[in-house]
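Dear Dr. H.,

I hope your travels went smoothly. While you were away I took the liberty of generating a structure for the chain from your last submission, since the lab meeting agenda had it listed for discussion. I wanted you to have the full record in hand beforehand rather than looking at slides cold. The sequence, exactly as received, is reproduced here:
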Amino acid sequence: MTRRAPTDAVPPPGGLILGTRGSRLALAQSHWVEQELKRFAPGLEIHFRISRTSGDQDPERPLTSGEEMGIFVRQIEDALLRGEIDLGVHSLKDLPLEQPEELFLAAIPPREDPRDVLVLREGERLEDLPAGSRVGTGSPRRVGQLLGLRPDLRAAPIRGNVDTRLEKLARGEYDAIILAAAGLRRCGISPASCRAFSPEQMLPAPGQGALALEVRRDAVNLAAFLEQTLHDPPTAAAIEAERSFLRVLGGGCQMPVGALGTIDGEKLTLEGVVADPSGEKTARGKMEGAWSERIRLGEELGRKILASGGAPILGRLS
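The corresponding predicted structure, in token form, is as follows:
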């Protein structure tokens, strides 16, 4: 999507310090934000401050607990609160459902491809994998939906950035790995054998493919500038529905929960799933309505899925 600078969009005086993680993907996302802002304000000076988050400091530790939500966010938020940076750039799926009182999301830009993709060492499709193949993913959400499609596969934990995971695949540590399409696209990576899962096969994490631009509440002028230039209301509405669905289920980016909201005109379609990591059971549902009712739709879908089998799945994992 190409946005035009509103006639009343006034860039903040002086330069901006943008806080980001140091991974290739995080830097690619932050450089995109930088380029977009400079498109609207060519003279704006933007400097990066790279934070090494607790998730980066121990890259081999499995992330399997709902308590881990925010592990890639906290240091950037702390830098915002201390006034060391002006703007935090996050992958929205990593953002906790609640922000510190002094901070808020000023803008959610247009979403990249939200789907998950299967990257294979040999072959081109999920069906090409022999029984017993080792598929790299540490996400309970992905594991549950993958084994629901192919219970004869073996899901194996994997950590590291996009490049590290692809290197592990190339070395033969895995027969295939699951990655986010958005991460590959933002990094400019096009694996030779890569196939996107359809939403019917695998629903993404709530917020997957979207960015969150976080500022201090007292940064009124900066917040207004970001809202006028980079904020995309349909993307934000879809993600608000997904996150309200997640909130009803208990929150946590490492829960076996997928959700995807899509906007068509004034209509919002929201799909959600709770998938047992064993692959044996799933609870899935869909709601449709006006996107002005996004919070209600998310909450209703959450309650519907809990009542139709989601509660026992989540209860076993708590």
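Two observations you may find useful: Residues 294-317 form the longest helix (24 residues). The chain has three domains: 16-111+210-231, 116-196, 239-317.

With kind regards,
E. W.
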